[in-house]
Amino acid sequence: MENKTSANGWRCDVCGYVYEGAELPEDFVCPVCGVDATEFVENE
Ligand SMILES: [Zn+2]
């Protein structure tokens, strides 16, 4: 499985919400639990 573009989205490390997009906006806030972008980890 070749997938090196890493455009799979970002996951909230707190609640598991998944943001679908290649780049997470710096000022993004989780709509579920309200944490900021620093709590998001890139999906593999
Ligand atoms: Zn969250």
The oligomerization state is single chain
- Which structural class fits the helix and strand makeup? mainly beta
- Fraction of residues in β-strands: 15-25%
Number of helices: 0
Mean pLDDT over all positions: 89
Please name the CATH topology: Rubrerythrin, domain 2
Strand arrangement, largest sheet?
A: 2-1-3
CATH architecture verdict: Single Sheet
The end-to-end span amounts to 12 Å
Element-by-element helix/strand order:
EEE
Ligands:
zinc ion
Task: Give the CA-based shape.
Answer: globular
Number of domains as seen in the coordinates = 1
Which consecutive residue ranges, at least 5 long each, have pLDDT under 50?
A: none
Radius of gyration: 10 Å
The main β sheet shows up as: 3 strands, antiparallel
How much helicity do the residues have? under 10%
CATH class: Mainly Beta
Explained architecture:
By secondary structure, the protein is an all-beta fold. The protein has a single domain, classed as Rubrerythrin, domain 2 (Single Sheet), CATH 2.20.28. Helix content is about 0%, strand content about 20%. The chain contains no helices and 3 strands. The protein has a 3-stranded antiparallel sheet, with no helix packed on it. A hairpin with a 5-residue loop joins strand 1 and strand 2. The protein is globular and about 25 Å long. About 10% of the residues are buried. The mean pLDDT is about 90. The structure holds zinc ion.
